[in-house]
Amino acid sequence: MEERFEYLEHTADAKFRAYGKTIEEAFENAAFAMFNVMIDTDTVVNEVSQEIELNSEDIEALLFNWLSELLFVFEVENLVFGKFIVDRVEQDEVGWHIYAKAVGEEIDLSKHKFDTEVKAATYNDMRIEQISDGWMIQATVDT
């Protein structure tokens, strides 16, 4: 599986599909696709790490919470990310859990050129599917 993500046509917002050999890799690539809507992630120096652990009742809510938490940290901590490491996505009797790390740096407007503002993650047309060679996540973010 070569393709990490692709952008899809959407009239107002940003819609993408992210892929991974594992569900963890698909969650990493979904986060990467969302940040690439906002900024050229190649300009981010990955020197600061933010641990993220979340719980949700189902896997769609986990994806929504994952993308929302990354946007929250971006806004509140003034951090931009260029790398995402999802250690585990797992299910137990109470729901779904993600254990991950977002890696990046403090926003520096002299080098980080922002393109499109992502306001929020949405449930609009969200899909998480196991496919022949791994996983596919489809998500739409409000811009």
How would you describe the overall organization of this protein?
It comes from Methanolobus halotolerans. This is Protein archease. The structure is a single chain. The protein is an alpha+beta fold and 143 residues long. It has a single domain (5-142), classed as Archease, Possible Chaperone, Chain: A, domain 1, CATH 3.55.10. Helix content is 24%, strand content 43%. It has helices spanning 23-38, 59-77; strands at 5-8, 14-20, 48-56, 79-92, 95-106, 120-121, 127-131, 134-142. The strands form two sheets. Strands 1, 2, 6, 7 and 8 form a five-stranded antiparallel sheet that branches. α1 (23-38) packs parallel to α2. The model has no long low-confidence stretch (mean pLDDT 95).
Contiguous helical run count: 2
Shape: globular
The CATH topology corresponds to Archease, Possible Chaperone, Chain: A, domain 1
Number of strands: 8
The unreliable regions are: none
**Rg for CA atoms:** 14 Å
C-alpha end-to-end distance: 29 Å
CATH architecture: 3-Layer(bab) Sandwich
Domain Archease: 5-142
Keywords: Calcium, Metal-binding, tRNA processing
GO molecular function, one term: calcium ion binding
Family: Belongs to the archease family.
